[in-house]
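name: query_chain
kind: protein
chains: 1
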Amino acid sequence: MKLKFSLIFLVLSILIGCSTFKDTVEEQLDGTWIWIGSSGGIDGRTETPESTGRTMKFQFSNNIVKKFNNANLIQELPYSIQLKESIIFGEPRKMLIYGEQSKQSFKLSKDTLTLYEECYDCFVSSYIRLSGK
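structure:
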């Protein structure tokens, strides 16, 4: 009886624990992301908040992204994540699709978001998580 109870308790603990994991990319992306730097362009330059004198922030929530520049809201757009052919990676990649035109491939690790502009000689930008789920 004790063994049966322990087994049931273990299974329930695992199920409850697993339900707290972020299952979708959208859930992992939800939150506020602060720009830490970009590099690229035809001249291969690097830009940071310190070198440009500006700050940038993304807020992702409920398939809406808000873009801020120096704490001013500059855009609010619906977004989706779709598998598209990447000109940068030469293969299908998950991409953030903003509105109807703009798209960026991305890499998402625990507290770092890397955005790749999908064009030649464009920028790669890095963000760190300020807050989120």
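note: The helical segments are 2-18, 25-29, 49-52.
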